[in-house]
Design goal:
The chain has nine helices and 15 strands. By secondary structure, it is α/β, with parallel strands linked by helices. It folds into two domains: 119 residues, Elongation Factor Tu (Ef-tu), domain 3, CATH 2.40.30; 189 residues, Rossmann fold, CATH 3.40.50.
């Protein structure tokens, strides 16, 4: 079940107030190797986390989208310019917006007006070891867009890679609303990596029993192993609704399996997160998505185990 679409308008206004989270994460450096003009649009409002376009711009979202969630963009008025990434694009009352915006300088341009917008072709700075994070919206959407930036200090010298790029420039392989079968169906898009971190299964409750989720996770782990990397599999975070029992059963079965038969390591994020005092306060949507403080706690829980894994390779 795709949980994202019904909440877009709500998220847009919530994310306008995400300055604390933004201040904690700086956009990753990258090399610009080319750019393509995508259009000239009038801006009516430039905020730290959003751009509002004029009604005359028309619909540049949905099927008409000119902005995606993976590309670095540049806007140039002829007098000033700025670079940014986006995590949302939608229409409200006939007006186009992009939200979850991250600015390369950390600040939005001061003056509204007409800008030429370019899509930039980039090459990431390369490090020795690579990590691909595989999962659903928890891997990248909402405050998950800061997941990798919070985890990166625990993994110096590690490059986050994947078919997608988050708003601060880290690669990943998360897609919103995915169940584990949908992850399996797109594994061919995931390139070989030294390590894979898998957090998937919270969307499976609507399709099959927990045992089927485990079978799918084993299939995902096997396929990723065959690409040449070690797989780190996380137990699921709690849900704050009636479907949490499914996650608990998946976690019980996942821990019982414990990666036997593959080059896998199982990390029990779920149990540790449930032990946190007032753990429910670390979700913003009363369902499945952690808030920024929630991702900070997730990083604290995961950091030690993942760091040990990478340090063993570095030695």
């Amino acid at each position: 079940m795709d949980l994202i679409a019904p909440m877009r308008k709500i998220i847009f206004f919530l994310m306008l107030c995400a300055s604390t989270a933004q201040a904690a994460c700086e956009m990753q450096p990258t090399t610009i190797v080319g750019k393509t003009l995508i259009g000239s649009f009038e801006t009516k409002r430039l905020k730290s986390d959003a751009i509002k376009f004029s009604p005359e711009t028309g619909d540049i979202t949905g099927k008409n989208a000119v902005f995606d969630f993976d590309t670095l963009y540049e806007m140039d008025s002829g007098k000033s310019s700025a670079r940014f990434r986006v995590g949302e694009a939608f229409l409200i009352d006939g007006v186009s917006y992009v939200g979850n915006v991250e600015w390369e300088s950390g600040k939005a341009p001061k003056k509204t007006g007409t800008y030429e917008f370019y899509a930039l072709k980039t090459e990431p700075v390369k490090n020795a070891k690579t990590l691909t994070m595989v999962g659903d919206s928890i891997t990248w959407w909402s405050y998950g867009r800061y997941f990798r930036c919070l985890l990166a200090p625990e993994l110096p010298g590690v490059q986050f890679v994947g078919p997608h790029t988050d708003v601060v420039g880290y690669g990943h392989a998360g897609e919103g609303g995915n169940n584990t079968q949908q992850v399996i169906d797109r594994l061919d898009k995931i390139k070989p990596s030294d390590y894979y971190f898998v957090l998937a299964g919270t969307n499976d409750w609507n399709f099959w029993a927990a045992q089927k989720t485990i079978e799918n996770l084993k299939e995902i782990a096997k396929a990723l192993n065959e690409k040449g990397g070690q797989v780190i599999i996380s137990t699921l975070l709690p849900r704050l609704d009636e479907h949490d029992a499914h996650n608990e059963e998946v976690n019980r079965l996942l821990l019982a399996w414990n990666g036997e038969g593959c080059d896998c390591k199982v990390i029990d994020l779920g149990s540790e997160f449930r032990k946190l005092p007032n753990s429910q306060s670390y979700f913003w949507d009363n369902a499945v998505h952690p808030n920024f403080e929630g991702y900070q706690k997730i990083t604290e829980i995961l950091g030690t185990d993942i760091r040990k894994t990478f340090n063993q390779v570095a030695q």
